[in-house]
Amino acid sequence: MTGMASNATVTDFTVWGADQAAYGPVELPTLVSLVKGERVTADTWIFDAKHSAWRKASDIPELQMFFRPKAGPVTADTRMAEPEAGIDPRMLRRVKILADLTDEQLGRFAASMEVERVPPWRVVVKQGDCEDSMYLILEGEFRVRVLAGEQETILATLAAGEFFGDISLFDHGPRSADVVSNKDGVLLKITSQAIRKLAAEAPAVALPFLLAVGKTLAARIRSGNKRYFDSVKFSRAAA
């Protein structure tokens, strides 16, 4: 999509994206689908061609119904807890392993964990250290590295929506590599104590998270096994 068109009709809208670029014009049905897909949030700026004005999505009458709080029964497992100041639980929607949680559960989850804002070049975890926590990346970029003397080898680069340190959450063993921030970032720190407390107080929130982490670990093991068997086959074929 391109920027605002000069011949926009009265039903056109233009979306100001998170990448600081304008997208559109789009018609109302398309805009609604963007809201439902959570690509447009209540705080997203929208240019309303009908009124020739920029407004937040929540202030556009045609969209207000999508941003009203959903009524429903409140239980110990699903009530919205007060999240850390400055952290919108919807930021957790970027993390794939939290995809099965409702908005209320995301709020409860966020309130149970620790938010860490890190500057560039901060060593978040250090190879060899024994810890019991994992981290979800809400903002920023992080590199996974190993050092041989002063030589740095980058194993992976992680962005918002990804996570690291999950094995230590379960075995409290030594870190296998350093993780360093490349720029300003926001992390959600999850300790084994916090997840045990959440499992006791809100199992319907903790269980989907633990299952998602387990599935991710299983997928990594299967991938590692496949690479090992492929290398064995290659070695035997080359012998």
What's the arrangement of secondary structure elements?
Elements lengths: L12 E4 L5 E5 L1 H9 L8 E4 L4 E4 L46 H10 L1 E5 L4 E3 L7 E7 L1 E8 L2 E9 L3 E2 L1 H6 L6 E4 L3 E7 H10 L1 H36 L1
Antiparallel strand pairs: 1-2, 1-3, 3-4, 5-12, 6-11, 7-10, 7-12, 8-9, 8-11
Helix pairs in contact: 4-5
Characterization of this structure:
With 239 residues, the chain is of the alpha+beta class. The chain has two domains: 13-67; 89-226, Jelly Rolls. Helices cover 30% and strands 26% of the residues. It has five helices and twelve strands. It has helices at residues 28-36, 103-112, 166-171, 192-201, 203-238; strands at 13-16, 22-26, 45-48, 53-56, 114-118, 123-125, 133-139, 141-148, 151-159, 163-164, 178-181, 185-191. The strands form three sheets. It has a four-stranded antiparallel beta sheet. It has a four-stranded antiparallel beta sheet with strand order 5-12-7-10. Helix 4 (192-201) packs across helix 5. Residues 1-9 and 71-85 have low confidence and may be disordered.
Share of helical residues = 25-40%
What is the architecture of the largest domain at the second tier of CATH?
Sandwich
What is the domain tally?
A: 2
Please give the order of strands in the largest beta sheet.
Answer: 2-1-3-4
Could you state the CATH homologous superfamily of the largest domain? Jelly Rolls
Mean residue pLDDT: 80
Write a brief caption for the model:
The protein has five helices and twelve strands.
